[in-house]
Amino acid sequence: MPNCISCGRELPHSDDPQNICPECRAAIAARSPSQNPLPGRRSLNLAMMPVTSVIIGINLIVFVAMVFSGVSLLEPQNADLIRWGANTGAHTLSVQPWRMLTSNYLHVGLIHILLNMWCLWNLGALAERIFDRWTYFITYTFCGLTGSLASVSLHPTRLGAGASGAIFGLAGALISALYLGHLPVNPRALKSILKSLVTFAAYNLFFGAVVPVIDNTAHVGGLITGLALGAGLAPRLTAPPDERHAWSRWIFIAAAAVLALAFELARRFALHRFIQ
């Protein structure tokens, strides 16, 4: 006798090809359409992807504002990037930790932002259907912050900018959620999606390793954070909304504590190294 893939209880009969009990299916259906991991085959639009659209919109607004202020469209200077909030050890680990966030919405030229936003649009289409809106946004933000912190901790003299750390983190969160979350997805489709996500992460990590100007440290930091957050969120992805939201709050509180501790350790290490 088959078992429900979500809660594990035995199913009285196997009419449901996805092996989900009525209770779990009702809990999943209680979500809004944008959060249903099994949407119909409809064209994507802004209304279906509100979080992704807002994030991309902020990135584009910042980029256009930079260009209109006189920053080069294709090759911004380091001084301009720092003025607009880029991530650097001398600033971030001293009195301007907010640069870990602002650098995620700052890009080094037109090609850089176009590539990152294309990746975000594709990953966001899946994330909008698996996570609720705040979970998606906070996960994305945490991954961007940890990617920035990893970069500035290991390369304090290097300038960092771009959304790629957060994007890698989103990919990691999706991998963990899909692999561990017992979502009502056809096994063949699930395998294909996971393969695409893993291939995306592996290829871009390799590309980042062989191209000197790419900050692969931020990629790795964001990816590891995303994998961890996705694994923590996975057990309650199909739970009722109240239970799911309470669980995600505790996950993010724990993540915030770890991030604060990591920042303090990085700051002290940088100060110690500077004094020596």
Core attributes:
single chain, about 280 residues, about 65% helix
Rg to the nearest angstrom?
A: 20 Å
Q: How many individual domains?
A: 1
Query: What is the CATH T-level topology?
Result: Rhomboid-like fold
In CATH terms, the superfamily is: Rhomboid-like
CATH architecture: Up-down Bundle
Structure description:
The protein has 276 residues and is mainly α. It has a single domain (51-275), classed as Rhomboid-like fold. It has helices at residues 22-29, 50-68, 78-83, 89-92, 99-102, 110-130, 133-154, 164-180, 187-210, 216-233, 241-275. It is globular, with a radius of gyration of 20 Å. The termini are far apart. The model is unreliable at 30-43 (pLDDT under 50).
Walk me through the topology:
Layout: H1 22-29, H2 50-68, H3 78-83, H4 89-92, H5 99-102, H6 110-130, H7 133-154, H8 164-180, H9 187-210, H10 216-233, H11 241-275
How would you sum up this structure in a few lines?
By secondary structure, the protein is mainly alpha-helical. It is 64% helix and 0% strand.
